[in-house]
Write a structure and sequence with these properties.
Number of strands: 9
Largest sheet: 4 strands, antiparallel
CATH architecture of the largest domain: Sandwich
Number of domains: 2
Radius of gyration: 24 Å
Order of helices and strands: HHEEEEEEEEE
Strand content: 35-45%
Number of helices: 2
Distance between the termini: 62 Å
């Protein structure tokens, strides 16, 4: 795979450092991504999302969900000692894991629930009022007196 140097991009732009960081992160990410545990990401409404992670075999105390530095971290550590147990067949993996999901701007976690062996994490995009589109009324030329609009 080819490596790209994004240093010129940092020198020539202002305010696009997050995009450059994201491109750098994607370019440098190892191709062999972890596949355990399996998960789904679904869009539940225009500005709402849900991440569902299969966590069969883990108790609530074994799971951790944290948001820090614009990323969602989901991890699990098995609490009980399984060395005393003897399995004839072990098909349910309960090994420790850590999953990281990078969150877009203005996306926040609204809650997490665990049911039927699934961990559901709900997210919502909340755009600040200052960034929402707003309609500007167009005045008539007669309404302008000495460079100021008359209301």
């Amino acid at each position: 795979m080819r490596n790209f140097d994004l240093a010129p991009l940092y020198r020539a732009t202002v305010g696009f450092d997050q995009i450059a960081d994201m491109l750098d992160r994607v370019a440098s990410t190892d191709v062999t991504q972890p596949t355990y545990p399996p998960y789904n990401i679904e869009k539940t409404a225009d500005d709402a999302y849900r991440i569902s992670i299969a966590v069969a075999g883990f108790a609530e105390d074994d799971l951790s969900v944290e948001v820090k530095e614009g990323a969602l971290f989901v991890s699990a550590r098995k609490g009980e000692d399984e060395s005393a147990r003897t399995f004839l067949h072990r098909g349910i993996a309960t090994r420790a894991f850590e999953r990281r999901f990078h969150l877009a701007d203005h996306v926040r976690v609204t809650g997490a629930t665990r049911a039927d062996g699934m961990l559901h994490i709900d997210l919502a995009r909340e755009v600040p009022e200052a960034l929402k589109p707003r309609r500007i009324e167009i005045g008539k030329a007669a309404d302008i007196v000495e460079g100021q609009a008359v209301n």
